[in-house]
Here is the input.
Amino acid sequence: MSDLYDVAAIGNAIVDVIAPATDAFLAEEGLTKGAMILVDQARSAALYRKMAQGLEASGGSAANTVAGLASFGGKGAFMGKVANDLLGEVFTHDMRAIGAHFPNTPLIGGPATAVSMINVTPDAQRTMSTFLGASVQFADDDVDPAVVEAAKIVYLEGYLFDAEPARRAFAKAAGLAHGAGRMIALTLSDSFVVERHRAGLLGFIESQVDLLFANESEVTALFETTSFDVAVEQLRQRVTLAAVTCSEQGSVILTQGERLSVAAEPVEKVVDTTGAGDQYAAGFMFGLARGRPLQQCGKLGSLAAAEVISHYGPRPQVSLKALAASRAIL
Amino acid sequence: MSDLYDVAAIGNAIVDVIAPATDAFLAEEGLTKGAMILVDQARSAALYRKMAQGLEASGGSAANTVAGLASFGGKGAFMGKVANDLLGEVFTHDMRAIGAHFPNTPLIGGPATAVSMINVTPDAQRTMSTFLGASVQFADDDVDPAVVEAAKIVYLEGYLFDAEPARRAFAKAAGLAHGAGRMIALTLSDSFVVERHRAGLLGFIESQVDLLFANESEVTALFETTSFDVAVEQLRQRVTLAAVTCSEQGSVILTQGERLSVAAEPVEKVVDTTGAGDQYAAGFMFGLARGRPLQQCGKLGSLAAAEVISHYGPRPQVSLKALAASRAIL
Here is the structure.
């Protein structure tokens, strides 16, 4: 089959509500800074009542990555589940507006479209409380074989390990992708997700994953170590290719033979780190799908991450293609 | 009655959908750059389908001004009409989250909450297509006398001249305000609004308005002249106090005796001019309500406008109180 897509992603279809918050607010609400917790609809509504004035934007980790890929000029597809409601319309609109293929129909008569309440502290860190709603109804039937088989890279969002039907969908997608000679990429998403599903994630990584994305806290959580170097060495033994992001220290790219360091792109003022990892993955996979050297893939990732943390909102607000061209990275 | 509020505003309760657009898109859609047109629900939906990926945020001109006032540490109230739907909840949440009093109950069984589709071109200009929905159901019954009589300044949004019941509400508010010795402020909102309601606006200004806000194109449209100086002189003869904004040329403050010029606050990169006039009015009225000299009122307006045009979204994303303190303007 021909390559219709650079990346086909599977993830939670979520609309974000983003608002500034104080550290005291996080403490009062029992929220761990930088992490994502799952909340039910009642808790979601109660938290919203207490949050500051915010703005709403389509989010979802893998969906943000597809948006970043599209901004580089890449061709993406996204599979995920929204409900038949206003936020579902917003999410669907935004996916189509970026030119991504979004084959899934909205859920009717079930829970509402997923919402993530994102509290951004003055240090620009984001803390997420997510009501998964319709997004966890994503099941193996929602995996479109034609889409998976036509993508150079099939990208899976680790957050979906929280939902049993989605884990089965991952297994289906991985089988289809490898059957068609495609690459499976996975992001670990969150250190709490890693804690909840360590064994399942390790098994999946060893058997199915060709490219792993993680940050420092996720990779150390995965191997239950406080040593970044130990974790990275463990990871190298298990995957062909990995990219580990380390915030302002840039990223480390691991292959069987080498360990490359990529500097972070300088940012004048970090406003909101929401989407940083998602955009790094977007740049990295755009480069990889287009056959660029790994160092350049990492630079594209750093550039995309730097853009998204300079403003509120989880997706790029400028053309990453033009931005990369202006910096001579593309 | 004691001063409970620095400003009580009456305006359209609107949620904005903000997205980047090209000049070619405006031309295809027959949109006049920088202006606001009214659309019905079908046209609103059709336009949304064609718009780029965007973000959603509570807007509405006078409501944005109340948000700016609150960001300076001022006490505001807002009167306007939302529907009993998700966007109405978002608008209401954001009004209460900024600490503003919002006495009106949502409309049940009528049109949806108002939405403004805002297309932002690369020159940062915003072009608005507004579906007024529930907001035009605002009527004189929705004017809370206790709120009007307890506000130092009662601020009216010119956009409401498009709705007959809202014009009656303005007349009621003006009567109540003047009966309580309060000041009535009006913004002209848009040159097309001025064209549609010139006679009505002039009559209202001469009989009721103590403080007028306008920009260059609105004030010249009001007096049917191409000369800014002619328009400004005409205006000075009709109101006690006026502030006319001139984009990067700053603003002109007119009193019976003088004409003050206030420089614009420099902005590194203008991203989206949505809300610039609203925030100018916020800063100006905060200063005025707190008894500051007119030059300082203008500077507070310029500062607030500069903040809001440096990012997407119609309301401040930082504390204007802290920003003004850091520049020694407060």
Remarks:
- Chain A has 13 helices and 13 strands.
